[in-house]
Amino acid sequence: MSDDSQEHNGHENVPSRQRRRFPGISSRAYEHPADRSALVALRKLSGFDTVFKALSGLLPERSLRLLFLSDSVRVSDQQFAHLNDMLRDACYILDLEKVPPMYVSQDPQPNAMCIGLDEPIIVVTTGLVELLDEEEMRAVVGHEVGHALSGHSVYRTILLFLTNLALRVAWIPLGNVAIMAIVTALREWFRKSELSADRAGLLVGQDVTASMRGLMKIAGGNHLHEMNVDAFLKQAEEYEAGGDLRDSVLKILNVLPRTHPFTTVRAAELKKWAESRDFQRLMDGHYPRRDEDKNTSVTDSFRESAASYATNVKTSKDPLMKLVSDIAGGAGDLGGRVRRGFGGFGTSAPGGNGSADGPANGTPPTEQPPTDTPPRDGD
């Protein structure tokens, strides 16, 4: 275990404390259902990783490694020693045998990533290092180690390459459309992988408040005295439950070009998982082991993922998800509910003084006010 008894420049000194270790833990223990089922399916495809790694000659991985080596600071006992302690501690807690190289890159934008085909490397920006305190940064380092343990770095590197390639061939209409279709699918998986890695960060830091603070700072900067975690989480609840079907469509359009889920959503997702029975069992030492991964059933993983999505649709307060749930449940007068959901197609019906389907104010009569616990889909 790492010892936090020494104070590092620019970082708050925190008391040393013991953290639970998870020997032989499988990444399945913390992976989001959609992330896990996708990865299990990919790993089961004979030769899939081999084919991807065969592309290494075409991908700029070697160039990236040389770039970080030549133009960033490599974390070690001599450089950013406090980050090096966190990195080794995170690998110890998640039982990752080979500690991946870690670099600090000069960039005011708070960011971190785990990339690489053959071997993962972790990069954090100076903006992130300067923004977060010791415990918040520990969760971020655990987040990136979680990516490494899950094998996310391979697919994230492919996404990075394809995104750059799409920009280069944007002038070729059909070529760009084909690449962007793949990029869009990979981004959807990427967002789910972020939810998984947030869970890994919590397993390493074992301080849910610190994880919440870190996400809040990424959203609003280093002004903790001006922010409140509970109020921040209520934003996620308002984001999901508010508006009508038009807002639901806009949410989808807003998130499509993003590689990460919105920070309020990530915070709500992580808090709900931290309060779940699955998390408590994991902390008690009941979790899947790596040596059992080869026996993982693709069918079971997809079944778990489908069950998770079905539950989320039923419990979601989002207007579109409520409509989907009603359709699945055979609710009547769906045409009227759609019209009300979009605020009504007109202010009056022919020959009458109002809509035949009731008030067109975007709020169905059966809709209930939001509760205090934000829903989540399982990152």
Please sum up the structure shown.
With 379 residues, the protein is mostly helical.
Terminal Cα span: 25 Å
Rg measurement, Å? 23 Å
Strand content: under 5%
Largest sheet: 4 strands, mixed
Succession of helices and strands: HHHEHEEEHHHHHHHHHHHH
Oligomer class: single chain
Question: Stretches where pLDDT falls below 50 for ≥5 residues?
Answer: 1-15, 344-379
What is the mean predicted local confidence, pLDDT?
74
Q: What gross morphology would you assign?
A: globular
Percent of residues in helices comes to: 40-55%
The structure class reads mainly alpha
How many strand units? 4
Strand order of the largest sheet: 1-2-4-3
SS summary, helix count? 16
Your description of this structure?
By secondary structure, the protein is mainly alpha-helical. It is built from 16 helices and 4 strands. The protein has helices at residues 33-44, 48-54, 61-71, 81-93, 126-131, 134-150, 152-168, 173-205, 208-220, 229-241, 245-255, 263-274, 277-283, 298-315, 319-328, 334-341, and strands at residues 73-74, 102-105, 112-115, 121-125. Strands 1-2-4-3 form a 4-stranded mixed sheet, with helices on both faces. Strand 3 (112-115) and strand 4 form a beta hairpin. The chain is globular, with a radius of gyration of 23 Å. The chain starts with 32 loop residues before the first helix and ends in a 38-residue tail after the last helix.
Task: List the keywords.
single chain, 379 residues, 16 helices, 4 strands
Describe the protein's topology:
Elements: H1 33-44, H2 48-54, H3 61-71, E1 73-74, H4 81-93, E2 102-105, E3 112-115, E4 121-125, H5 126-131, H6 134-150, H7 152-168, H8 173-205, H9 208-220, H10 229-241, H11 245-255, H12 263-274, H13 277-283, H14 298-315, H15 319-328, H16 334-341
Parallel strand pairs: 2-4
Antiparallel strand pairs: 1-2, 3-4
